[in-house]
């Protein structure tokens, strides 16, 4: 098995890991949105820590994708290839910020429960601020994600490293989500569903890379 084939398998696997870990982490941290979350979070220690582990896994997978891809895509356009690396690294950093904030909420909940006479207003204010930062970081990471999707699928489309129908689907999906992402800043939660196209395309891409790999003639050209 040559190095390019190994790279395609690694990249495809990382795409799947990033997506699955993101979805799983979301299943475990929803207690932070409970009305009595300062108490509930402290009683769901295992769930929060599992969520943290999966979020860290997501961050590592996101950062690993462009690192693995760079030697191949830089042959097509080195500037755009660097742009892809930078955008995905920023996405991973925002995930890490979200993870740190989640741990801060976890620590705050424990302090609230263990304090004999807690100043409720103080804890509620601190918790509200932390939840706000958590939500904003979750929104802000969508920008580099959508931008990276547009960049990589443009490179794929121009180079024919993968079938053009698949890279075109990624261009459309990434472009739609990139255009919709600013709406999230204004509280339009339905805009999140605009990520469906690129989400599906990434999973199809991942399976394609694992099974078929890159177009060898496109790499050598």
Number of domains: 1
Percentage of residues assigned to helices: over 70%
Along the chain, the helix and strand elements come as HHHHHHHHH
Shape: elongated
Kindly estimate the percentage of residues that lie in beta strands according to DSSP: under 5%
Largest β sheet strand count, sense and barrel closure: none
Over the alpha carbons, how many angstroms does the gyration radius reach?
Answer: 20 Å
Distance from N terminus to C terminus (CA atoms, Å) equals: 20 Å
Output the number of helix runs: 9
Q: What integer is the average pLDDT?
A: 90
Poorly predicted parts: none
Counted beta strands = 0
Structural class: mainly alpha
How would you characterize this protein structure?
- The protein has 221 residues and is mainly alpha-helical.
- It has one domain.
- The mean pLDDT is 90.
- Helices cover 81% and strands 0% of the residues.
Provide a short characterization of the protein structure.
With 221 residues, this protein is an all-alpha fold.
List the helices and strands and how they pair.
Elements: H1 3-28, H2 37-40, H3 45-73, H4 78-114, H5 120-140, H6 142-159, H7 164-185, H8 196-211, H9 216-220
Helix pairs in contact: 1-3, 1-8, 3-4, 4-5, 4-6, 6-7, 7-8
């Amino acid at each position: 098995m040559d190095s390019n084939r190994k790279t395609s398998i690694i990249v495809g696997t990382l795409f799947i890991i990033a997506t699955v870990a993101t979805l799983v982490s979301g299943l475990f941290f929803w207690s932070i949105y409970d009305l009595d979350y300062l108490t509930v979070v402290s009683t769901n220690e295992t769930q929060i820590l599992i969520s943290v582990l999966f979020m860290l896994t997501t961050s590592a997978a996101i950062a690993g994708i462009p690192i693995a891809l760079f030697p191949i895509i830089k042959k097509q356009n080195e500037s755009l290839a660097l742009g892809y690396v930078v955008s995905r690294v920023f996405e991973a950093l925002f995930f890490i910020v979200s993870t740190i904030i989640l741990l801060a909420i976890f620590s705050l909940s424990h302090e609230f429960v263990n304090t004999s006479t807690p100043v409720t207003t103080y804890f509620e204010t601190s918790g509200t601020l932390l939840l706000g930062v958590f939500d904003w970081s979750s929104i802000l990471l969508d920008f580099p994600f959508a931008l990276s999707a547009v960049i990589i699928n443009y490179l794929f489309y121009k180079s024919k490293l993968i079938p053009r129908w698949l890279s075109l689907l990624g261009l459309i999906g990434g472009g739609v989500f990139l255009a919709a992402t600013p709406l999230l800043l204004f509280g339009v939660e339905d805009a999140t569903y605009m990520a469906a196209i690129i989400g599906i395309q990434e999973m199809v891409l991942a399976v394609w890379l694992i099974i078929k790999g890159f177009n060898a003639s496109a790499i050598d050209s």
